[in-house]
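INFO  loader      accepted 1 record
INFO  loader      residues=145
INFO  predictor   begin
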Amino acid sequence: MRQYKANLNPLLSGGLGNRNGQAALLAAYQEFRAMFAEWVSAETQYAATKSRKSSSPKEIEDLRSLSVNKFAWAIGAVADFQSAWGESEVSDLAGAIFYHVADWCDEVGNAQFPIPKELAQRGIAEEISESSAELHLMVCEELSM
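INFO  predictor   done
INFO  writer      dumping C-alpha coordinates
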Protein backbone atom coordinates (compact mmCIF):
# COMPACT_ATOMS: atom_id res chain seq x y z
CA MET A 1 0.00 0.00 0.00
CA ARG A 2 2.85 2.40 0.82
CA GLN A 3 4.50 1.70 -2.52
CA TYR A 4 1.21 2.26 -4.32
CA LYS A 5 0.79 5.63 -2.60
CA ALA A 6 4.39 6.57 -3.31
CA ASN A 7 3.85 5.78 -6.99
CA LEU A 8 0.91 8.20 -7.03
CA ASN A 9 3.11 11.00 -5.74
CA PRO A 10 4.98 12.40 -8.75
CA LEU A 11 7.66 13.93 -6.54
CA LEU A 12 8.51 10.53 -5.06
CA SER A 13 8.31 8.46 -8.20
CA GLY A 14 11.76 7.97 -9.65
CA GLY A 15 10.74 7.98 -13.29
CA LEU A 16 9.39 11.52 -13.48
CA GLY A 17 12.77 13.22 -13.31
CA ASN A 18 14.05 11.11 -16.19
CA ARG A 19 11.26 11.96 -18.61
CA ASN A 20 11.96 14.77 -20.99
CA GLY A 21 10.69 18.02 -19.47
CA GLN A 22 7.96 16.50 -17.34
CA ALA A 23 9.32 17.88 -14.08
CA ALA A 24 9.08 21.39 -15.51
CA LEU A 25 5.51 20.74 -16.68
CA LEU A 26 4.54 19.45 -13.25
CA ALA A 27 6.21 22.41 -11.52
CA ALA A 28 4.33 24.87 -13.77
CA TYR A 29 1.06 23.09 -13.01
CA GLN A 30 1.65 23.11 -9.26
CA GLU A 31 2.52 26.81 -9.33
CA PHE A 32 -0.57 27.53 -11.42
CA ARG A 33 -2.82 25.67 -8.98
CA ALA A 34 -1.33 27.34 -5.91
CA MET A 35 -1.44 30.91 -7.25
CA PHE A 36 -4.87 30.40 -8.79
CA ALA A 37 -6.30 29.09 -5.50
CA GLU A 38 -4.90 32.06 -3.58
CA TRP A 39 -6.36 34.48 -6.11
CA VAL A 40 -9.84 32.89 -6.06
CA SER A 41 -9.82 32.87 -2.27
CA ALA A 42 -8.82 36.54 -2.05
CA GLU A 43 -11.38 37.57 -4.64
CA THR A 44 -14.12 35.61 -2.88
CA GLN A 45 -13.30 37.41 0.39
CA TYR A 46 -13.34 40.75 -1.41
CA ALA A 47 -16.72 40.01 -3.00
CA ALA A 48 -18.24 38.91 0.31
CA THR A 49 -16.96 42.03 2.06
CA LYS A 50 -18.12 44.32 -0.74
CA SER A 51 -21.60 42.82 -0.49
CA ARG A 52 -22.05 43.71 3.21
CA LYS A 53 -23.41 47.18 3.94
CA SER A 54 -21.55 47.14 7.25
CA SER A 55 -18.13 46.87 5.56
CA SER A 56 -15.89 49.89 5.93
CA PRO A 57 -14.27 51.54 2.92
CA LYS A 58 -10.83 50.68 4.35
CA GLU A 59 -11.75 47.02 4.76
CA ILE A 60 -13.03 46.87 1.19
CA GLU A 61 -9.96 48.65 -0.17
CA ASP A 62 -7.57 46.39 1.76
CA LEU A 63 -9.24 43.26 0.38
CA ARG A 64 -9.38 44.74 -3.12
CA SER A 65 -5.67 45.44 -2.90
CA LEU A 66 -5.00 41.88 -1.71
CA SER A 67 -7.06 40.39 -4.52
CA VAL A 68 -5.26 42.56 -7.10
CA ASN A 69 -1.92 41.38 -5.70
CA LYS A 70 -3.01 37.73 -5.88
CA PHE A 71 -4.33 38.34 -9.39
CA ALA A 72 -0.90 39.59 -10.48
CA TRP A 73 0.74 36.42 -9.12
CA ALA A 74 -1.93 34.30 -10.82
CA ILE A 75 -1.28 36.00 -14.16
CA GLY A 76 2.40 35.17 -13.85
CA ALA A 77 1.61 31.56 -13.00
CA VAL A 78 -0.81 31.28 -15.93
CA ALA A 79 1.79 32.74 -18.29
CA ASP A 80 4.43 30.31 -17.01
CA PHE A 81 1.97 27.43 -17.27
CA GLN A 82 1.02 28.24 -20.83
CA SER A 83 4.65 28.77 -21.78
CA ALA A 84 5.60 25.36 -20.37
CA TRP A 85 2.64 23.52 -21.85
CA GLY A 86 2.63 25.35 -25.19
CA GLU A 87 -0.18 24.93 -27.68
CA SER A 88 -2.19 22.12 -26.12
CA GLU A 89 -5.64 21.25 -24.86
CA VAL A 90 -4.27 21.46 -21.33
CA SER A 91 -3.10 25.02 -21.91
CA ASP A 92 -6.39 25.97 -23.56
CA LEU A 93 -8.44 24.61 -20.65
CA ALA A 94 -6.28 26.43 -18.09
CA GLY A 95 -6.81 29.65 -20.05
CA ALA A 96 -10.57 29.11 -20.21
CA ILE A 97 -10.74 28.57 -16.44
CA PHE A 98 -8.63 31.67 -15.84
CA TYR A 99 -10.81 33.87 -18.06
CA HIS A 100 -14.02 32.56 -16.50
CA VAL A 101 -12.84 33.65 -13.06
CA ALA A 102 -11.45 36.93 -14.43
CA ASP A 103 -14.86 37.78 -15.94
CA TRP A 104 -16.50 37.24 -12.54
CA CYS A 105 -13.82 39.40 -10.90
CA ASP A 106 -14.56 42.18 -13.38
CA GLU A 107 -18.25 41.99 -12.46
CA VAL A 108 -17.38 42.23 -8.76
CA GLY A 109 -14.95 45.09 -9.28
CA ASN A 110 -17.30 47.11 -11.50
CA ALA A 111 -20.39 46.62 -9.32
CA GLN A 112 -21.58 49.44 -7.08
CA PHE A 113 -21.23 49.07 -3.31
CA PRO A 114 -22.86 47.06 -1.89
CA ILE A 115 -22.78 44.49 -4.64
CA PRO A 116 -25.77 42.17 -4.96
CA LYS A 117 -25.56 39.14 -2.69
CA GLU A 118 -26.18 36.89 -5.71
CA LEU A 119 -22.96 38.13 -7.28
CA ALA A 120 -20.92 37.75 -4.10
CA GLN A 121 -22.33 34.32 -3.37
CA ARG A 122 -22.20 33.08 -6.95
CA GLY A 123 -19.92 30.22 -6.00
CA ILE A 124 -17.13 30.75 -8.49
CA ALA A 125 -15.15 27.89 -6.97
CA GLU A 126 -18.03 25.50 -7.65
CA GLU A 127 -18.42 26.85 -11.18
CA ILE A 128 -14.84 25.94 -12.05
CA SER A 129 -14.74 22.74 -10.02
CA GLU A 130 -15.58 20.39 -12.89
CA SER A 131 -13.21 22.11 -15.30
CA SER A 132 -10.46 22.13 -12.68
CA ALA A 133 -10.89 18.40 -12.11
CA GLU A 134 -10.79 17.84 -15.87
CA LEU A 135 -7.59 19.92 -16.08
CA HIS A 136 -6.03 17.86 -13.31
CA LEU A 137 -6.88 14.62 -15.07
CA MET A 138 -5.51 15.93 -18.37
CA VAL A 139 -2.24 16.93 -16.69
CA CYS A 140 -1.97 13.52 -15.03
CA GLU A 141 -2.61 11.78 -18.33
CA GLU A 142 -0.05 13.88 -20.18
CA LEU A 143 2.53 13.18 -17.48
CA SER A 144 1.59 9.48 -17.33
CA MET A 145 0.80 9.68 -13.64
